Amino acid sequence: MKEFGYQRVFDVSGALALLDADPDARFLGGGTNLVDLMKAGVERPARLVDVRELPLDRIEPTADGGLRIGATVTNSDLAAHPEVRRRYPALAQAVLAGASGQLRNMATVGGNLLQRTRCGYFTDVTRPCNKRTPGSGCPAVEGEHRNHAILGASGHCVAVHPSDMAVALTAFDAVVSYETTDGPGALPLSEFYLPVGGTPHLETALPQGALITGVTLPPAPIAAVSRYRKVRERASYAFAIGSVAAALDVRDGVIQDARLAFGAVASRPWRARSAERTLTGARADGETFAAAADAELAAAKPLPHNGYKVTLMRNLVVAVLTELSEEAAR
Amino acid sequence: MTTAPTAHKGSVGVARTRVEGRDKVTGAARYAAEVPFAGLAYGWLALSTVARGRIRSVETAGVLAMPGVLTVLHHGNAPRLDTGFVGFLGAPDPTCAVFQHDRVPHRGWPVALVVAETSEQAREAAEALVVHYEEEPHDIAFDGERSDAYPVDGHMPAVTAKGDLEAELAASAVVVDAEYTTPEEHHNPMEPHAATARWDGGRLEVVDSNQGATWVVSDLAQLFSLDPASVRVRSEHVGGGFGSKGVRAHQVAAVMAATALRRPVRVVMTRRQMFSLAGYRSPTVQRLRLGADAGGRLRALEHRALSLTSTVHEFIEPSAGAARVMYDADAHHTANRVVRLDVPTPTWMRAPGEAPGSFALESALDELAEKCGLDPIELRARNEPERGPVSGLPFSGRNLIACFREGARRFGWADRDPRPGLRREGRWLLGTGTAAASFPARARPSTATVTAEADGTFTVRISAADIGTGARTALTQVAADALEVGPERVRMRIGDSDFGPAMIAGGSMGTRSWAWAITAAADELRERLIPGAGIPPEGVTVRSDTTAAVAALTETERHSFGAQFAEVAVDVATGEVRVRRMLGIFAAGRIVNPLTARNQFVGGMIWGISMALHEEAVRDRASGGHYAADLAGYHVSAHADVPHVEADWIDDPDPDDPVGIKGIGEIGIVGAAAAVANAVWHATGVRHRSLPIRPDRVILAGTGEPHA
């Protein structure tokens, strides 16, 4: 494999300076995805800047009642944090639904947001892939795409985003903070991932050389009754074929507010706003839940071999919202 | 229950941890790619990126200038090999005869070996190597409609036929006619294939990971036109094989490079390369036609199985073979056919034939039981053959129904409501299923030496392979009893071709064949030793060869049998299938080591779960290669998929057999996938005839639509 440099940094400015000095450098978090991609030849960085020892490993309440999660917090610590479990249970469930215990001990929040798709064409350098090699083509459109996108894809790329955590964060309007050599910035997660369009290789709106420093969850009382359900092709240690993060606020049988996001259906975590609009103000019953799912999935454009995902997501939305409304009623 | 130890011989039948267990868990045990050598160079295979065509050129110049690169071997400069021989398992698969011509018969065909000072340098250079091809259109379309399929014998006759099939089907009260499919499956042993070759004092030594050291010696010697005595292969510890670890491209390439460079060369396959180079189980399309009278007695049985092979070698997955042992019928027709495609050659994989064949056959039996309104176990009891349905030979023992009875008792089968789709627990539909299993108990000649040492211990030398099965431990117990000493006085040395010819770890014949040879040598040694007399410093050594004894074995239908039970939960809304518990009861001869035997049975059953629900290698039509060929893309059951799995056995004596050990490596997987699939039907009312039973298949099938 290609030789590369490695440097561990202990402060943010040092990290930014190293990346600024070397356009072929990459930040290394837990390495659970980047190192795999280096072995596969998909990523060929000249230098790794290990940011895992940066002082960004805390989870703190914000003044307004939200939570700020540092970028180097591990998945394991995030899922185990009492305030996360109490205020945003779907987030803890989403993190625990991902990977394995060993991987969660290594993986970081910042890295999780930036992980790449597991599309088998993307990870195989002997195949064309518009995301890896712009303009080379997308064999998935007419090839293997059982676990590819049904929403928001383009003819240039039909890959899905692999993160579970990001689905829950999307449902709860998380905001990503970053630092650059020009100063700090922030991006709502809804704007963090770029639409695929004709540029699947451009995945996020992060400025060049930016370092994610943390994620802020705004206060969301609704999130206290929330849930993440993930369906995959085995019981554990596999990426989702469909997942739902949901929260419901139900009073007297009527939905006051709803949060819904889908995983494994699009190039990014998919905030189901059409479904949310259908839910809000409606009676919390199966009919409403199905109508909400249908409202969101009306835009689905399944490929020849992933049409089952439309049924799966509809069933999953109804199942999860039914469970939540029962929980909210207790 | 455990098999009772024989009188005054206390080792066999007693649970013992592995004799090398401590070495393995502490990392002291060295595997093939871990044995250090001075001056070691590293080879990295470059594989073709086209599925069919011709190599036009290999651009070596740039790569040879890269750091550390020592040489690039390819069809233009590699030594010629002799492939015109018949080896231990037939003619060699030309896939292992690397760099002999410019033809590319499948994607992932080895086109070059780059050798460098370090593994990283070799890899970087191999990945930078530019190979130009004249690409030709490829054909990888495997389906039941192939008109170019033809029958192939393999290790059994391709076709057997008796009786008038159509007449018996027409006269049957109940008929099942269904097609079943299984996907391409891969062995994926934990330890990748790895070999280090070096010349040492005029002898070629290969430190390797394989299932039979003398097998590898024999094939390498013939490929390189060497005297077999001048080749030595060692494979002390092997991290899994499952049929994939014979002679493959990496050993041959390593020998070529070690010869060219006159220094040790190591070649290790990556996981991804293993998908192309290590062999695999062919996908199958199987058609079953069963006809029975109203009481469930079979009048007609037809099992036609199709598998695929490469264009360079004929290998058949004989799925239709199981019916030749399991069930008789007035008209009984079985056929194994193959189609040649632009894909790598498949190979033996745990229970070749029986594993996919039993899925189809035992699913069809379950469908027949449903149609007849009979309990599936009762149906099988009514169809117990007196003699081999095809051979006409008597069974040396056939304890299938005893396995079912014991399994049914322990599983709680009597309480089962046979109607499907009735049991619900929250979002889960629950069901149970069962299936029969069998696997042949064969033996092959082996040699062994046993030495009585002056210090009162004994050293056994046999070219056996412990591929993770516990064979080393089992053989220690067998030797201890044969020598009538405690196992702590026995030193078991295996995995070295210098110990002489022996059976490979394969076909569930390893422990049976090796134990035979060890027992023969030990028996003779005990006769030679004079009680009270001292042992000379060099010890007393006896060598055995079971060739004549194996040949003299009476020909009978000698098999292990088993009954598999599974309980599953299915969420038809999400397509998730979870196995809740499994029970396997086996009649598999004398059980040498209950601990490692249980591990073998349970391991096979877990693979059955994996086969039923998860495993599937996907080929991309456009490129002819795999999609996501790694363990993230090729799912095997994870721990969370493997619930309470229990295996046990019943007494299965075989007084006419000199060994009594039947071999247990493969039967655990046989019938396991069918038991799971039958349970999914019982849970949901939907028959799933294509494996794996993926969520998308379950979702699309829904519920309550029989025979969707």
From TrEMBL, chain A:
InterPro entries: CO_DH_flav_C, CO_DH_flav_C_dom_sf, Diverse_Substr_Oxidored, FAD-bd_PCMH, FAD-bd_PCMH-like_sf, FAD-bd_PCMH_sub1, FAD-bd_PCMH_sub2, Mopterin_DH_FAD-bd. Pfam families: CO_deh_flav_C, FAD_binding_5. SMART domains: CO_deh_flav_C (SM01092). It comes from the Bacteria. Keywords: Oxidoreductase. Residues 1-222 form the FAD-binding PCMH-type domain. This is Oxidoreductase. It comes from Streptomyces hiroshimensis.
From TrEMBL, chain B:
The keyword Cell wall biogenesis/degradation does not apply. It comes from the Bacteria. Residues 26-137 form the Aldehyde oxidase/xanthine dehydrogenase a/b hammerhead domain. Keywords: Molybdenum, Oxidoreductase. The keyword Plastid does not apply. InterPro entries: Ald_Oxase/Xan_DH_a/b (IPR000674), Ald_Oxase/Xan_DH_a/b_sf (IPR036856), Ald_Oxase/xanthine_DH-like (IPR016208), AldOxase/xan_DH_MoCoBD1 (IPR008274), AldOxase/xan_DH_MoCoBD2 (IPR046867), AldOxase/xan_DH_Mopterin-bd_sf (IPR037165). PANTHER family: ALDEHYDE OXIDASE 1-RELATED, XANTHINE DEHYDROGENASE. This is Oxidoreductase.
